[in-house]
């Protein structure tokens, strides 16, 4: 048999085999190959933290209910220990539990865990700009500038405190209009808290009847809530697919674009009448910094970063404090005996007409303890903001490769029975000792280390003044025939579900020093 005949025979055999080989076999083979490749890629390395096994491509996506993921992860911590590994798509995450390990990550070995994780959704919105999602030199420059500017505009000074006190009066006025009838405090509180950061960033506050601003707050609320939805988690795992599919994630991105457009318009208005010799607010200060760095090609002070840094301040300065205050009113309405003690202390120490100030905090230990207990129980950011390991490292004997996502288990810390006498009960005594306020090392709602919340001092002042002012003027009760609950809504923060309260005025007298401002 000659060589050409052999080739022809082999060719006929190959053709016969191919004719019997259907496309479905090819697809099944490709899928099997991908599954094996994914399995090999995800094999646990030696000394990698333990955790539940995940499915190919999606990991532990279907193992957890995203409507209460913070509670389910606590059960997994009990099974697997204080370094728990879970993964979603290509995001390999490790949850760090316990104060010693949290301090190791956020303080002692902070340089290895300093970088912020940038998910596909955040990349789409922020593009590594601003304060919250930036890293490296950009983050250092933006954070330093924000802290300096906040100080210059009154952080820790009397001027900003007077601004908060004045806004508390406006909020009281607005609640008084309800005349003790049931109402939802959500957007009244959002408006009041947001007006503080708006005064710093935009140089103005917004009326509670301002339709444009109310719409803005609803965009922010919707975007905040939607970020924890299953559609956004799917987007982070399969961005190349989700970009082309319809769904709520499209609304999410549109809401953020509307918020950015609002900020852009405010900046354009500032530029039209900007006077470098007169710095009115954060935007003016930033425009001055842009001008100062105009010849510096590597400077992060560009107009795009101004938009994102302002948006970060607006979001963080509105959402976190207002959510905490909403939880505070809910907890106090559900615990009337604690509300009575707060009001008795306020009546005894400052009276019904003198407006509370941060200087009164030392004289109001029980009120201060209640505010801290609200923060402990609410756990509005249960796992802190995610970090990313910047280089291969080890922690507590476990190997953490570069790129591992790090979550710090703040809710686990705040609900740890080894740290708190009654962790599951609203109990202000956790922060009291012999009638005096007691600081707790295991209380970290603002995080610790270099990436701790830059607005912590502002938030603490707002919480104290708004809360004590409302307690001084109203008694909050559930409406007749309506039962309040501690049901929550997952989002960027954990917030209470929609609820209504009755705000019963405690007296009509208003002190002379409690003027209404503008």
The CATH C-level class name of the largest domain: Mainly Alpha
State the secondary-structure class.
alpha+beta
Query: If you compute it from the alpha carbons, what radius of gyration comes out, rounded to the nearest whole angstrom?
Result: 27 Å
Which stretches are low in confidence, meaning pLDDT under 50 for 5 or more residues running?
29-42, 508-518
Shape: globular
User: How many structural domains can be distinguished in the coordinates?
Assistant: 2
The biggest sheet amounts to:
5 strands, mixed
Helix percent reads 40-55%
- Write the CATH architecture name of the largest domain: Orthogonal Bundle
Q: How would you write the strand order of the largest sheet?
A: 1-2-7-4-3
- CATH fold-type name of the largest domain: Cytochrome p450
Would you report the number of β strands?
A: 13
What name goes with the CATH superfamily of the largest domain? Cytochrome P450
How much is the average pLDDT? 88
What is the helix tally?
A: 18
Distance between the termini: 106 Å
Strand content: 5-15%
């Amino acid at each position: 048999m000659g060589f050409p005949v052999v080739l022809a025979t082999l060719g006929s055999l190959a053709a016969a085999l191919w004719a019997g080989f259907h496309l479905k076999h090819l697809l099944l083979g490709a899928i099997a190959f991908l599954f094996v490749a994914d399995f090999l890629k995800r094999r646990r390395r030696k000394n990698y933290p333990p955790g539940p096994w995940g499915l190919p491509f999606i990991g532990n996506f279907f193992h957890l209910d995203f409507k209460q993921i913070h509670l389910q992860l606590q059960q997994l911590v009990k099974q697997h220990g204080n370094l728990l590994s879970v993964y979603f798509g290509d995001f390999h995450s490790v949850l760090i539990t316990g104060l010693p390990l949290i301090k190791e990550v956020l303080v002692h070995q902070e340089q290895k865990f300093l970088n912020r994780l940038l998910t596909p959704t955040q990349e789409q919105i922020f593009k590594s700009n601003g304060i919250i999602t930036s890293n490296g030199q950009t983050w250092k420059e933006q954070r330093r500038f924000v802290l300096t500017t906040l100080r210059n505009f009154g952080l820790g000074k009397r001027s900003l405190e007077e601004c908060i006190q004045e806004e508390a009066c406006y909020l009281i006025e607005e609640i008084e209009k309800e005349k003790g009838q049931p109402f939802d405090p959500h957007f009244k509180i959002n408006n009041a808290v947001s007006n503080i950061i708006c005064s710093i960033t935009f140089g103005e506050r917004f009326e509670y009847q301002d339709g444009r601003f109310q719409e803005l707050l609803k965009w922010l609320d919707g975007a905040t809530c939607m970020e924890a939805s299953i559609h956004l988690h799917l987007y982070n795992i399969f961005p190349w697919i989700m970009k082309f599919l319809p769904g709520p994630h499209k609304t999410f991105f549109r809401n953020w674009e509307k918020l950015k457009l609002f900020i852009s318009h405010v900046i354009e208005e500032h530029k039209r009448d900007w006077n470098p010799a007169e710095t009115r607010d954060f935007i003016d200060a930033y425009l001055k910094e842009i001008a100062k760095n105009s010849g510096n090609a590597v400077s992060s002070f560009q107009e795009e970063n101004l938009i994102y840094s302002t948006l970060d301040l607006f979001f963080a300065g509105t959402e976190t404090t207002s959510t905490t205050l909403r939880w505070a009113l809910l907890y106090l309405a559900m615990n009337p005996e604690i509300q009575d003690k707060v009001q008795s202390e306020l009546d005894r120490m400052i009276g019904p007409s003198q407006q509370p100030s941060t200087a009164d905090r030392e004289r109001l230990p029980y009120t201060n303890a209640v505010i801290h207990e609200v923060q402990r129980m609410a756990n509005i950011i249960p796992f802190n903001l995610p970090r990313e390991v910047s280089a291969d490292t080890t922690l507590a004997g476990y190997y953490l490769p570069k790129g591992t996502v790090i979550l710090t288990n703040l809710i686990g810390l705040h609900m740890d029975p080894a740290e708190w006498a009654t962790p599951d009960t609203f109990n202000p005594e956790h922060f009291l000792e012999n009638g005096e306020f007691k600081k707790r090392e295991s209380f970290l709602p603002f995080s610790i280390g270099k990436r701790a919340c830059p607005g912590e001092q502002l938030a603490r002042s707002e919480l104290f003044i708004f809360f004590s002012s409302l307690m001084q003027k109203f008694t909050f009760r559930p409406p007749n025939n309506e039962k309040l609950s501690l049901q929550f809504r997952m989002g960027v923060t954990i917030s209470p579900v929609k609820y209504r309260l009755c705000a019963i005025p405690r007296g009509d007298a208003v002190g002379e020093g409690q003027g209404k401002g503008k």
